[in-house]
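Input/output pair, single chain:
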Amino acid sequence: MNQVILSFIIFLPAIVAFCLMFATKEVKTVRNISFITTTFVLALALKLFMDYEANSSMQFVVNVPWIENYGINYYLGLDGFSLTILMMIAILIPSSYVLLWEKDNKSYFINMLLVQTGVTGALLSLDIVLFYFFWELMLIPIFLMIGMYGSGDKVATTLKVTIYTMAGSLFMLLAIFYLGMSYFNEFGTWSFAYNELAKISSLDASTKTWLFLAFLFAFAIKIPLFPVHTWIMATYKNAPTGAVFILSSIMAKLGIYAVIRFLIPIFPAEVELYSTYLVAIGIFGMVYFGVAALTQEDIKRMFAYSSASHLSFIAAGVFSLTTYGINGALYLIMAHAIATGALFLLVGNIQDQTGTKKIKDLGGIAKKAPILTFIFAIMLFSNVGLPGTSGFVSEFLIIFGVFQFNIYLGIIAALSVIIGASYMLWMFQRAILQDRDESLGELKMKDLKIKEILALAPWIILIFVMGFFPDIFTNIYEPTVNSYLQDIFQIGATK
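Output:
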């Protein structure tokens, strides 16, 4: 039963999306059915969550031939890593529909459904060719959303995103083909299952390094890590709110997940060899993006840098190869997705109402929209790691993990958190709390509607539940982390 549910979760949104393309032109109908579909997917994900046993094994496995002659299988499964992110996706997407309720084009919601199929398919795939298929599929509706509903120079933005992602995908595809042929040459059969590819021993060190870098390049673009991050700034600035939400809260996390699922098991020696450099890049990116955020006048662009800073921090936790670091990274994936996703949606609401993204042209929002301000503050405090919120727990774990890895990098990571807090609080004071400049005229803005408040309520609850009762969540994936470090990677809980 649960094996069937895995496939249902992946393909139901796409099936509904294709039906809606031809069944009706009514935006209201498309929106309502899309929302019901994502809510049903959430119910299915909760069923898997309830049936999941917190251990290190891969559960609800589906493995049937797809392209049999070349060992490419429809191979799905769920463990602590993927379950954590699956629940995050399943919870966030239905709520986001409510905050995007006023969009007046049916293709907007259809593309959102197609994205959901792509991201869940990539998340649950254990065959690397199948993963690649969904990895590429999830990008198509994003390109369409930016090109159709973006602002500013949306054509150039779409082109830039396309060039970056296709370059990364090309390198990854070549590496996948090479690994497949290497497996065939060594074992006499074809396989693209990640656990089988990890058994390849015939490659020399130089070849494995280049293959490792090809995969790393593709995943680093998606995260994004310094220095392959430049596409994200224009994209977040010009993309429509729905696309920015998907990119920041969900798709970027798949880059981190891909590192954990595929890169480290297949190339453990290379990851361990370059781990110091990779952690250092993560910490540098955190600082660099934090400082850059301080200089921004466009609120969406500032949040783009903020998101990149947090994602660099998550990457540092993963590459530390410590129990605390990886546990913290997974926790921050959830915490960051909730807080940053809500912030981007709220900023989109502000932009739609005021017609501006400039921080200097805002101000006075607290008086006009006190409920929005209150929710904005909660999400902001979680983002900066205020004690009692999910952000505090995750950042503490990562800092501790990086300290275990390298004390000097740990000190820099701890200090960098202060930078992150400073620019977020600076923005909040200028854009939300301070009085509006009288020369700008009266601020035309209404507070959040009841349905929008109700949609965000589960996110607010999660922030504080995760902040005060982290064991509820860490107990789900911690056995997987321990097994990962001890059995798969064979380096123990610390370096």
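Residues 1-260 form one domain. The CA atoms of residues 35 and 94 lie 6 Å apart.
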